[in-house]
Design a protein that fits this description.
single chain, about 140 residues, alpha+beta, Immunoglobulin-like, 2 domains, 7 strands, about 15% helix, extended, stress response, A-crystallin/Hsp20_dom, HSP20-like_chaperone
């Protein structure tokens, strides 16, 4: 039905509406980059997709038990005939596994993918602790 009323389709109408709201209220959305965490015997490997960002646009830091990846992809001011690329701030915080070391982390950027190598320390497995349930 909407396609008959608006020849550009629903997705373009929705996108135009969202962009108008963003311009009106000035609140830019913080984007969460896609990622994956691999477990290896002596380390974890976190991969975060950050296309279009260079090392100068990225910050990787530890905050307590969290690894934070933050950056910004800025839009260049120029006349556009089509714009589907997403610009803005990215932010993602990852809770480190219990056996992750906070020393010796390494971050590398390869082909738009940030790779963070997180060393592991060998710890004995902690047995579960049973908590008694009392009637209130």
């Amino acid at each position: 039905m909407l396609e008959k009323l608006w020849p550009f389709g629903r997705n373009r109408v929705r996108k135009a509406f969202e962009e108008a709201l963003e311009r009106a209220f000035g609140e830019a959305e913080v984007l969460e980059p896609l990622s994956e965490l691999e477990e290896h015997e002596d380390h974890y490997l976190l991969r975060v997709e950050v296309p279009g960002l260079g090392p100068e646009n990225l910050e990787v830091r530890l905050e307590g038990d969290q690894l934070v990846v933050e950056g910004e992809k800025r839009e260049e001011k120029r006349t556009k005939h089509l714009s589907e690329i997403v610009y803005g701030k990215i932010y993602r915080a990852y809770l480190l596994p219990k056996d992750a070391k906070k020393e010796g982390l390494e971050a590398h950027l390869r082909k738009g993918v940030l790779e963070v190598r997180i060393p592991r320390e060998k710890r004995p497995a902690e047995p579960p602790v049973r908590i008694p349930v009392k009637e209130a």
